[in-house]
């Protein structure tokens, strides 16, 4: 008959998830054992697993009754054994293979005494037959037996450690330090086996094993790669080449001994990739070779890694010489050129390598994870550690405590960060302990979460409590990551309430410099101006600036970002919505910071139109021309003076330029849509200004009605819907007198309106100028500014050259009288899209003109490889190629009859005039170069057709194109590749070579 204690209902209440299996297992143990152990099993991470593993262990023992009596008589032993079996399947499997090891957990001192490192080392050496007292201990047990014995002994010591950790509140620091000592002893024993393999020649060299990373910092995980660096020196009289060969053999064998899989499993991988030159470099170097590398070639991340360097095995005196050699270089790393960029790039690489499926469950690398804490602590150490030796501890929590004591981290923040890091590392330990596998991903399935939660002490609602606590600590880490670096900077210039850190101005300057501000003194002055006083505005600024400073620092030009923010803040004064919007709508603040730290062009627009900050929270898609024209005309109608009316039109244009620029900078607007948006905005501006100019001229001449109808024809990139930020508006003016009007009066009126339009748009103002260029008209600058439709017809019929027909390919009548616009296009269509194509003589002439352009138009001193318009494979090359195809074949291919380059190229591809691969190359290059050209103007604030040489400007261009910090050279190489491929297509298609 079933007893109440082992009923399914009671077992469920006690935490068993498989009640039938539990009843069977309890029956195997017998009623007495079941009665005494049931309550203890209920306190384990997974009672069902603990019970099943206990039964397996009992069946592996010759006399299980002894173990069961001991467990019933000794609650401490029972909790240690059952705690391990419930939390770690891997250690349960180990006990099933080596059942005698359960006796290790009967040690009454296990809960109170941490084994000294020398004792752990000695035990590991003895199992391989090496003398712990020998300066160069060498294994004597046969090789295969020694490798297996090392694994068994490692698991035996790990079993004791895990039992103490799970049931005696060992604490993160002690557990991690003991794991590090165990790793150091294992490396020593593996080196002893390696010496046996190498034989007598092992005596020719001194070899030291330097632990890096968590092992070096005395904070190792249960399962982790053990990062090491090897350093050697020949013994006196030994040849250097022979010593290098022997040292490499010893290091290689050590790596294999620890990492190979045998019948007793594996221990952990030994990773030597943090050595100079990484995988490409020699496995071991002498002190002199290390010194030469670190002084000349090492990058910032290598010095950051050396923060935790510690000799752990082999010749410890040699290892200490190595540490003393690199220490001065480590503590001057923050002053090296490129420190900030290298640090940011390293963090970005870490984040980029997180698999998308794991990003939200990543305990180590994800946002608010362990690496955020470690990076924060290490960066603060590198910035301030040169002057303050007290903060140089290699252990994260010890370093954080010293930073807090030293005033570099606020006390409350230090405590909160310590608690978050301790929780995250403990959770990491529990995850890894289960299977003894290297993982940092929190499982998502309920059984695993339930086991983890219970192993962390959450016996009630373990899943919900674990998830809630984890989410809390992630939020804290994200919040404190910002606060640690940026809020203390305000203490150097403003009195902050509470117990925040009080950085001196000198320390603040040093920190700002390390975070990427090139002029930290000026940055401090901006901070002082923004935060001084006791007004509501200053209080909000003090709350906003820590986050804003971080976002500026993540941009290519933090100094410009902060300065621009100050200018905008001052221009808006006490405007209530500005700071409230930034405080309450996070997206606006992050977008504003990115724009200000990247683009002088957009910053200048914001300084002149600070109300545009509101727009950053809206859709940034370009608006339609009709809506813009209506708004411009309405704004102009409220002004009595033509110049004021046009200033109102230009204000709308300025705002919309900001919308387009911001969408471009934030990668929300495609390059084709940028060109189309700028072209539509120009349409609306010209339409509204034409109306204002016409009214002004009629008022001056006291005319009730206009004597002629006017239209504006877009030409060039404007006609092709491909304007960039710095483009002029190339146009033709066409008019047609109304019936009964005097022809001379009509012509005079048309010229006056055209000149007035150009004058009004050229007036000095606070917005980028819109230069209206009519030089593509018949006879150029020497010809009349405006012509009638019949005059254009007569000129083109008699005098037109092939280059004028080519220019008309992009004619798009967009502004003014609709009927006149339509008839102008009907007039020029036969000229630009000839039914039989152009003659071979005209093809030759087009190529001749292009050759002259290539030779004569490139500005003096410009690099033909990086000039965006006239360079090899640049915009002119691609556009002339497409235009030649249009003039030759548009009579046969209707799709070629368009002013736009990319649609024309697509039509040429579909018609077989360009093959698929060549068309794809031209399209990609055109889009790429157009994006770069726009980006250069956005960055520099003024148009340029040359890739910038200034490193910060080039980095900003790379940023707009989607490259990360430190990747501007990759951007340049990609640009050269695109244009080189495009030039090869141009040679084949345009030049037919």
How do the strands and helices of this protein lay out in sequence?
Layout: H1 8-14, H2 19-29, H3 31-41, H4 47-60, H5 64-73, H6 75-87, H7 89-97, H8 117-127, H9 143-167, H10 172-198, E1 205-211, H11 213-216, E2 226-234, H12 240-259, E3 270-271, E4 284-285, H13 287-296, H14 300-306, E5 310-314, H15 316-330, H16 339-352, H17 370-384, H18 396-405, H19 411-435, H20 446-455, H21 462-491, H22 505-514, H23 520-531, H24 536-554, H25 558-572, H26 576-584, H27 586-596, H28 600-608, H29 625-637, H30 642-665, H31 671-701, E6 708-714, H32 716-719, E7 729-737, H33 743-762, E8 772-773, E9 786-788, H34 789-798, H35 802-808, E10 812-816, H36 818-832, H37 840-856, H38 875-889, H39 901-910, H40 916-940, H41 951-960, H42 968-989
Parallel strand pairs: 2-3, 2-4, 7-8, 7-9
Antiparallel strand pairs: 1-2, 1-5, 6-7, 6-10
Helix pairs in contact: 1-2, 2-4, 4-5, 4-6, 4-7, 5-6, 6-9, 8-9, 8-10, 9-10, 10-12, 13-15, 17-18, 17-21, 18-19, 19-21, 20-21, 21-22, 21-24, 22-23, 23-25, 24-25, 24-26, 24-27, 25-27, 25-28, 26-27, 28-30, 29-30, 29-31, 30-31, 31-33, 35-36, 38-39, 39-40, 40-41, 40-42
List the main descriptive attributes of the protein structure presented here.
mainly alpha; Four Helix Bundle (Hemerythrin (Met), subunit A); Beta Polymerase, domain 2; five-stranded mixed β-sheet; 10 strands; ligase; PII_UdlTrfase/GS_AdlTrfase; ATP-binding
């Amino acid at each position: 008959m079933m007893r109440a204690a082992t009923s399914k209902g009671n077992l469920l209440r006690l935490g068993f998830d498989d009640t039938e299996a539990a009843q069977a297992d309890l029956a195997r143990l017998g009623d007495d054992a079941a009665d005494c152990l049931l309550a203890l099993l209920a306190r384990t991470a997974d009672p069902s697993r603990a019970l099943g593993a206990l039964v397996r262990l009992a069946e592996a023992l010759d006399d299980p009754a002894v173990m069961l009596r001991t467990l019933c008589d000794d609650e401490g032993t029972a909790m240690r054994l059952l705690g391990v079996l419930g939390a770690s399947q891997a250690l349960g499997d180990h006990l099933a293979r080596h059942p005698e090891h359960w006796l290790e957990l009967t040690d009454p001192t296990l809960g109170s005494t941490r084994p000294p490192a020398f004792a752990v080392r000695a035990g590991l050496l003895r199992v391989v037959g090496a003398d712990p007292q020998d300066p160069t201990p060498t294994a004597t047990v046969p090789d295969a037996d020694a490798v297996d014995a090392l694994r068994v002994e490692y698991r035996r010591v790990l079993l004791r450690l895990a039992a103490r950790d799970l049931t005696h509140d060992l604490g993160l620091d002690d557990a991690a330090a003991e794991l590090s000592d165990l790793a150091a002893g294992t490396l020593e024993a593996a080196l002893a086996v390696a010496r046996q393999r190498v034989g007598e020649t092992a005596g020719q060299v001194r070899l030291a094993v330097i632990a890096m990373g968590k092992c070096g910092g005395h904070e190792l995980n249960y399962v982790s790669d053990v990062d090491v660096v090897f350093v050697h020196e020949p013994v006196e009289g030994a040849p250097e080449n022979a010593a290098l060969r022997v040292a490499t053999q010893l290091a290689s064998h050590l790596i294999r001994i620890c990492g190979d899989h045998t019948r007793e499993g594996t221990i952990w991988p030994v990773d030597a990739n943090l050595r100079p030159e990484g995988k490409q470099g020699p496995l071991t170097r002498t002190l002199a070779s290390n010194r030469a590398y670190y002084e000349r070639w090492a990058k910032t991340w290598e010095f950051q890694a050396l923060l935790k360097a510690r000799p752990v095995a082999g010749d410890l005196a040699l290892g200490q010489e190595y540490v003393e050699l690199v220490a001065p270089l480590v503590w001057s790393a923050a002053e090296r050129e490129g420190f900030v960029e290298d640090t940011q790039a390293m963090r970005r690489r870490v984040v980029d390598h997180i698999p998308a499926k794991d990003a939200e469950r990543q305990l180590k690398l994800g946002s608010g994870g362990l690496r955020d804490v470690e990076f924060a602590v290490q960066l603060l150490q590198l910035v301030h550690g040169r002057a303050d030796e007290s903060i140089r501890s290699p252990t994260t929590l010890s370093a954080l405590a010293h930073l807090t004591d030293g005033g570099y981290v606020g006390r409350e923040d230090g405590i909160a960060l310590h608690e978050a890091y301790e929780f995250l590392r403990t959770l990491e330990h529990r995850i890894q302990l289960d299977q003894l596998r290297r993982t940092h991903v929190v499982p998502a399935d309920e059984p695993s979460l339930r086991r983890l939660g219970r192993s962390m002490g959450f016996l009630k609602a373990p899943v919900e409590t674990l998830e809630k606590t984890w989410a809390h600590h992630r939020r804290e880490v994200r919040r404190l990551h910002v606060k640690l670096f940026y809020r203390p900077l305000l203490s150097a210039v403003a009195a902050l309430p509470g117990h925040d850190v009080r950085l001196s101005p000198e320390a603040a300057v040093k920190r700002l410099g390390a975070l990427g501000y090139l002029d930290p003194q000026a940055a401090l002055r901006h901070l002082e101006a923004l935060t001084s006083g006791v007004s509501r505005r200053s209080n909000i600024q003090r709350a906003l600036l820590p986050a804003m400073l971080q976002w500026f620092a993540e941009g290519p030009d933090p100094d410009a970002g902060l300065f621009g923010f100050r200018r905008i803040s001052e221009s808006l004064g006490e405007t209530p919505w500005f700071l409230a919007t930034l405080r309450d709508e996070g997206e606006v603040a992050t977008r504003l910071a990115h724009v200000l730290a990247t683009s002088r062009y957009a910053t200048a627009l914001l300084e002149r139109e600070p109300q545009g900050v509101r727009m950053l929270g809206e859709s940034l898609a370009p608006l339609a021309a009709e809506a813009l024209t209506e708004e411009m005309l309405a704004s102009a109608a409220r002004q009595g003076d033509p110049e004021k009316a046009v200033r109102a039109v230009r204000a709308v244009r300025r705002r919309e330029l900001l919308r387009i620029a911001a969408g471009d900078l934030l990668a929300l607007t495609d390059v084709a849509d940028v060109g189309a948006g700028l072209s539509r905005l120009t349409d609306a501006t010209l339409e509204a200004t034409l109306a204002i100019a016409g009214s002004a001229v009629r008022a001056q001449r006291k005319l009730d009605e206009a004597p002629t109808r006017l239209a504006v024809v877009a030409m060039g990139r404007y006609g092709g819907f491909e304007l960039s930020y710095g483009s002029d508006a190339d146009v033709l003016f066409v008019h047609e007198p109304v019936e009964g009007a005097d022809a001379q009066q009509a012509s005079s009126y048309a010229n006056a309106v055209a000149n007035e339009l150009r004058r009004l748009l050229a007036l000095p103002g606070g917005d980028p100028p819109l230069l209206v260029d009519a030089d593509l008209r018949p006879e150029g600058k020497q010809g009349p500014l405006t012509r009638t439709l019949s005059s254009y017809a007569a000129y083109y019929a008699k005098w037109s050259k092939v280059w004028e027909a080519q220019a008309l390919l992009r004619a798009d009548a967009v502004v003014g009288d609709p009927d006149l616009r339509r008839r102008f296009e009907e007039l020029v269509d036969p000229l630009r899209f000839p039914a039989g194509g152009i003659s071979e003589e005209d093809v030759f002439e087009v190529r001749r003109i292009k050759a002259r352009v290539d030779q004569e138009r490139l500005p003096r001193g410009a690099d033909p490889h990086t000039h965006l318009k006239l360079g090899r494979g640049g915009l002119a090359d691609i556009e002339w190629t497409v235009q030649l195809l249009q003039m030759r074949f548009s009579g046969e291919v209707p799709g070629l009859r368009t002013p736009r380059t990319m649609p024309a190229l697509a039509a040429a591809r579909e018609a077989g005039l360009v093959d698929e691969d060549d068309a794809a190359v031209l399209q990609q290059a055109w889009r790429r170069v157009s994006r770069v050209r726009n980006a250069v103007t956005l960055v520099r604030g003024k148009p340029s057709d040359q890739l910038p040489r200034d490193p910060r400007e080039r980095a900003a261009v790379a940023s707009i194109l989607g490259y990360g910090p430190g990747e501007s050279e990759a951007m340049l190489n990609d640009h050269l590749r695109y244009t080189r491929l495009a030039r090869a297509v141009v040679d084949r298609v345009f030049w037919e070579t």
